Amino acid sequence: MEEQTLIKRCQSGDMAAFEILLGNYEKLIYNLCYRYFGNQYDASDVGQEAMVRVFRKIKEFNGKSSFKTWLYRVVTNLCLDELRRRKTKTISLDEIKEQGYEPITNYHNPEEAAESLEKYAIIQEVLLTLSREHRTILILKDVEGLEYNEIAQILDCSLGTVKSRLNRAREAFRKRLAVEPRYSILRERSVQA
Q1: Would you say 9 and 68 are in contact if contact means Cβ atoms under 8 Å apart?
Q2: What is the CA radius of gyration of the chain?
Q3: Would the pTM of this model clear 0.70, i.e. be above it?
Q4: Measured CA distances, 158 to 80, 147, 148, 154, 191 (Å)
Q5: Alpha-carbon distance 58 to 61, whole Å?
Q6: pLDDT, tens digit, for every residue of 112-170?
Q7: Whether 148 contacts 140, CB under 8 Å
Q8: Is 21 exposed, middle or buried (0-12, 13-18, 19+ CB in 10 A)?
């Protein structure tokens, strides 16, 4: 079924259409939440809360942006609200490993998979040390791969603001990498957040 049809049905209160629509975005929501909170439990909890919020706000979707962009905005705002509420703490690499996170890999040998997991954990750890503003812009651009204009819509700011925030966030990320010797695995190659 076409997405616009599903959205219209959702706006009319059709739960079956909502389940289909959000089923297409469930992984996106979880991954976005995971990038903000750094663990599967919070990502799952906040992701569920995000779906409830989307259901409550779906009638406000007016089609001025794509549904995906609107969804990013709703989920990003929820994550930022939750972080403000919690005054989140940085978690260590050991805590990430203890939580059992293991990404699906397409590597041919265990060494490549281990190196990839280590890089991912370091990127996540560094992201969690950055300010909310820097973390948000890096997640949306460098992790999720959104376009500048989509980010401007999500954050409700100008294109110039997006670009300057991204520049400052990338610099903060690089500076953070430079001070920790254990982050050398990322400095060896040019790796973005």
Answers
A1: no
A2: 18
A3: no
A4: 19, 13, 9, 11, 27
A5: 5
A6: 666 667 777 778 888 888 898 999 999 999 888 899 999 999 998 999 999 999 999 99
A7: no
A8: buried
